[in-house]
Amino acid sequence: MGIFKRLRDMTMASINDLLDKAEDPVKMLNQFLRDMEEDILEAETAVAKQIAIEKKFKLQFEESEEMVTKRTEQAMKALEAGNEDLARRALEDKKEHQGRYDELKRQYDLAKTNADQLRAQLTEMKDEFNKMKNKKDLLIARAETAKAQKQINQAMSGFGTDNAAKGFDRMSEKVLQMEAEAQASGEIRAKNRSLDDELDGLGSSSSEINDELAAMKAKLAEKKQS
After folding, report:
1. What is the 3-state secondary structure (H, E, C) of 89-138?
2. pLDDT tens-digit profile of 135-177?
3. How far is CA 204 from CA 12, 128, 207, 213, in A?
4. Residue 10 burial (C-beta neighbours within 10 Å; 0-12, 13-18, 19+)
5. Burial class for 128, CB neighbours closer than 10 Å (0-12, 13-18, 19+)
6. Rounded distance between C-alpha atoms, residue 87 and residue 93, angstroms
7. pTM over 0.70
8. Within a 10 A sphere around the Cβ of 43, how many other Cβ atoms?
9. DSSP letters for the chain
């Protein structure tokens, strides 16, 4: 039947094939389950209708069976009472009910067979649905792992490329240049400081000499006076 077609199609092989083409496996898996739920609801409706037909035929053939038994008993009572004509009419009516019973029993057996098949297929659908639900988490985990791995691989592919290496080389050269400029600036400052210190030293030495020379002159003057 058409309502069970998806059950035959929804195998793991077909799901994996669809996942290969899906942009978002998680959304696709959830959509598959929603579709299966809708099919199960449709199947449940069909099964319920078939069960109703089965019960209707069962009730009707049981009523006919009761009438056959009743007319048989009535025909016997009529004969016992000596009323053969009434017994004959009862048997004629029994025959009609017997024919109705035979046809209804045949329809009931067919309806029951169909209902049993639909019940079995519905059970199979629900079992398959539960299997898919249990496997969904595993498939989603696998999809997320693959997605993360792909992102990592793409990120890692940029490591060590020529552009990155050249960029590091440029920055290394720039840092060396900055260090060289800083060193040169320090040397110039140190050179300027040395000249100032030397000149300051000259002035200091001349002053000390003058002071010592003045002291010696003072001593010499005292000796001459004595």
Report:
1. HHHHHHHHHHHHHHHHHHHHHHHHHHHHHHHHHHHHHHHHHHHHHHHHHH
2. 888 877 887 888 888 888 777 766 555 666 677 778 888 888 8
3. 100, 106, 5, 14
4. buried
5. middle
6. 10
7. no
8. 23
9. -GGGHHHHH--HHHHHHHHHH-S-HHHHHHHHHHHHHHHHHHHHHHHHHHHHHHHHHHHHHHHHHHHHHHHHHHHHHHHHTT-HHHHHHHHHHHHHHHHHHHHHHHHHHHHHHHHHHHHHHHHHHHHHHHHHHHHHHHHHHHHHHHHHHHHHHHHHHTTT-HHHHHHHHHHHHHHHHHHHHHHHHHHHHHHHHHHHHHHHHHHHHHHHHHHHHHHHHHHHHHHHH-
Residue 93 in tokens: 């009516």
Return the amino acid letter for 199.
Answer: L
Give which of 67, 63, 62, 61 is closest to 93, Cα–Cα.
Answer: 67
The structure tokens 């001593």 sit at 219
Cα–Cα distance list, 141 to 22, 25, 29, 66, 153 (Å): 15, 10, 12, 62, 18
The per-residue pLDDT for range 164-211, each reduced to its tens digit, is: 667 777 888 888 888 887 887 777 766 666 655 665 655 555 677 677
pLDDT bucket at 1, cuts 50 / 70 / 90: very low
